Prior knowledge:
Elements: H1 12-21, E1 25-29, H2 33-42, E2 46-49, H3 53-56, H4 68-81, E3 86-90, H5 100-112, E4 118-122, H6 128-136, E5 141-146, H7 152-155, H8 165-181, E6 185-189, H9 193-202, E7 207-210, E8 218-221, H10 223-226, H11 244-261, H12 277-284
Helix pairs in contact: 2-4, 5-6, 6-8, 8-9
Amino acid sequence: MSVxxxxxxxxxxxxxxxxxxxxxxxxxxAYDATFAQLFDQAGVDTILVGDxxxxxxxxxxxxxxxxxxxxxxxxxxxxxxxxxxxLIADMPFGSYQSSIRDAVVNASRLLKEGLAExxxxxxxxxxxxxxxxxxRAGIPVMAHIGLRPQRVHQMGGYKIQGKTVSAEEExxxxxxxxxxxxxxxLLLEGVALEVAANITNAVSIPTIGIGSGPxxxxxxxxxxxxxxxxxxxxxxxxxxxxxxxxxxxxxAQQFIADVQMGNFPTxxxxxxxxxxxxxxxxxxxx
Length: 286
């Protein structure tokens, strides 16, 4: 008899209720079914297929070269490993900036082909009409403000935002504008701690922080970062929970040694030939 396991799916209303209830929201990035399943089973609230895949998966210098088709492919992979967590897909550079029509068409592809449940896009005050159009089209939007990696060349690097009074005022205006446009949540990246706290208190929708201090309604990190997959990558905003690079390197070295010394594979790792009855009979006549 089959056993049906009830899965309590995380929904946008539940995420918004978490803010009202004072429960912190957890988010991790994933790019394939295996990691998605592990994070999902661990109980993470949301999984983001971020354009950060350009750097941690593809080995690129920044996120700008990532294409919409690549995000769709990786989102579809993650969807196969995700049962409980809410699934968010990044809108990559060039997929929504040219026109509102392009934004709606491309975001629709992320939901239809990628099986995402909402989209995230890096926005400024100028993007309020785009966010509103997406929401009207039935596409839930997480608005990403503060440090916008897709504008790394324009910003002159990855710099903390909101350090001056005027910069704080602009971020606050952007946050309020996005909430009014219908965004269901804000992602605050690289925002000065006090500013992130003020925005979190000012808006009714959840804020998810990365490098923005402890006062946001939730936190997001790149999955590879919490696993310590890059030994020489130690950003201030992240936290390594395990030495993944060391563990994987050690396992690979042990495998290499076992192969070279003849310790792997053994008979226990192999399948033996089945002797046919005719072969056995022939053998017994001698």
